Amino acid sequence: MTASLPPITSATKIVVKDSTDALEMLGTSGEVTEVTTTADGHTQLTIKGEKLSDQSVEHITLTLTDDTPIIGTKDNQPIQVDDLEKGAKVFGFYGPKMTRSLPPIAEAVKIVVEKE
After folding, report:
1. What's the domain of life for this entry (predicted)?
2. DSSP labels for 39-81?
3. Dist CA 104 CA 86 (whole Å)
4. What's the pTM value of the predicted model, to 2 decimals?
């Protein structure tokens, strides 16, 4: 290693990971206050309620993709995006990447709709 600042040396081994470690999943439990469609055709749910972890937020807008699973709590059956409506009780799960807007916007990992 050289005596310069910062020190310079050659690498003996470089490891490139194929995937990142499992990201922490965040969640918000509450009521859907708004259902909108973005310009590119994706559905967005605005949820206001309780955060499920310390890093979660109480008010968030989640963007649903074609791959976002939406299931019911009663029977774990899939629910169609068109069936989501204002006032529904949901659990929204998302990753740690969020916008700094108010409410923050994140991509939904999973939506669980509370069924009676």
Report:
1. Bacteria
2. TTS-EEEEEEEEESSTT--SEEEEEE-TT--EEETTT--B--G
3. 18
4. 0.77
Tens-digit pLDDT profile for residues 52-68: 998 999 999 999 999 99
Chain centre distance of CA 51: 13
Q: Could you tell me the CA-to-CA distances from 3 to 7, 10, 14, 61, 77 in Å, in that order?
A: 6, 14, 23, 52, 64
List the Cα angle 107/23/19 in 5-degree steps: 105
CATH number of 26-113: 2.40.50
Nearest 10 degrees: CA dihedral of 87, 80, 107, 66? -160
Query: Would you state the structure tokens that stand for residue 101, as one six-digit string?
Result: 């807007």
Predicted pLDDT of residue 31: 97
Q: Is the bond into 96 cis (omega within 30 degrees of 0)?
A: no
What mean pLDDT, rounded, does the chain reach? Answer: 90
